[in-house]
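The authors assume throughout that readers already know how a fold can be written as discrete tokens. In essence, backbone conformation is discretised, so a fold becomes a row of integers matching the chain in length. A single example would do more here than another paragraph of explanation. For illustration, here is how one protein appears when written out as sequence plus structure tokens:

…
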Amino acid sequence: MILEFLGADREVTGSCHYIKFNDKHILIDCGMEQGADLYVNQEIPVNAALIDYVFITHAHIDHSGLLPLLYNHGFRGEIYATKATCELCDIMLKDSAHIQEFEAEWKNRKGKRAGKELVVPMYDLNDAQGVLEHFEALPYSETVRICDGLLVRFTEAGHLLGSASVELWITEKGETRKIVFSGDLGNGNRPLIKNPEYIEEADYVVMESTYGNRNHNTPPDYAVELAKIIKNTFNQGGNLVIPAFSVGRTQELLYFMRRIKTENLLPEFANFEVYIDSPMAIEATSVFNKNVEDCFNDEARKLVESGINPIRFEGLKTAVTSDESRMINFIDKPKVIISASGMCEAGRIRHHLKHNLWRSDSTILFVGYQCPGTLGNALLNGVSTVRLFGEEVEVKAAIVSLPGISGHADYRHLTQWIEAFKKPPYRVFVVHGEETTAVGFADHLKRDLDLHAYAPYSGDAFELLTGAQVAEGSKIKVEKKRDNRAGNTVFDRLVLAGERLAAVIMKCKGMANKDLAKFADQINALCDKWER
């Protein structure tokens, strides 16, 4: 029974964990890395075609974004997630595939002129649609038998609509171990979604630590603070531009905007307009409206029951087409623009930054974590110019961060979550945090809670029946930005297809001889064709 750490170890994005028990291979999350890469991540130790099950904690791309690539490499197993996560992944993985295809096309246009080799997308829309057929929704709080020796239960994590902590009971050689993966934990008292639920027992815990080095400086009232920022910006005649994740953060902002309107918190600009410029955010808002009963907290459900949509209001506008998006920047009156991506790495937000960063009357408001190496992080850290669409743009707009609007639990709430275990776990693995944060939070757990805690490196592996470490990951840092997007050659694709074939062959062991012979003849015929 082996647990190996693959991604988001001493780093924040790219979550992926691998477990092998009996003859089964499973993954918990399969996320894409975003921003700068500190350590080289260990590859999945088996061919994708051998992976039996994947459990997804939530739909954010840094936890789900490599699923289409897994499918492209031969995965045909089953993917389990909550209903809302399945619905959000349907939107987000297709959108991610469009980005891969666009970037490959852009690279090939430039590369053709330079005589460079053709690149193919990391994955395409067919891969995204293919992997989505392997999703299966599981309910919260229900223990489900997946196969012999494997039980699973999803518990509310309070981070995003549909987010869950994953509880696994794994039995091998007559012994059972319970492993809990926290996923991304919410901070509690969030608009719309429920608070995280506590878990009382586990042998091993793998927990996030994004904000494990600080407590959030929560403003007394988000709607009031947001109204102040809007008023200051509009008084100068500028626009308020908010880079926001399409799923989760955009819907929370709409909740606060509705409150500003209904509570008359901005009487000077009572009829102000808010533009959502993100087709994915518009689709995701529809998913929120369909999951009221399972995922909304009591306050939000009461609003719905009284006939009030908590995320709609007068003056809310949407931009779906590219033409509608461009037209926003030709509207003279001050306005609020909410657009993706939340870290300003791609998407329509970059166009709005190009039109507003140089304006001293406008404000760029950040309402979420900005990973080091991203444009959002650079802006927050005072960069004076940025390059957008081949142009140098001077930063004159006010760059503001609204503290406290965070989807992640802070130091205090993370500590409360791990303290809820009635019996101390045998070991706590601290992941999904910048290196100093993850190590510091692990030290806190050891020093103050007397827990056996460790911040693993990618490639570290542990035998869970004995608790012994059986492999060490690389501790060598790299000074580069990993490009997880387009860049594979067509030959790389052929090599991966060959690796998938080898994995399928291994799965055929024990089949009838006549079937094995037929398969061998088919492979040999294919080889004969291409050797001619």
About this structure: Residues 222-401 form a domain with the Rossmann fold fold (CATH 3.40.50.10890). The chain is about 35% helix and 20% strand.
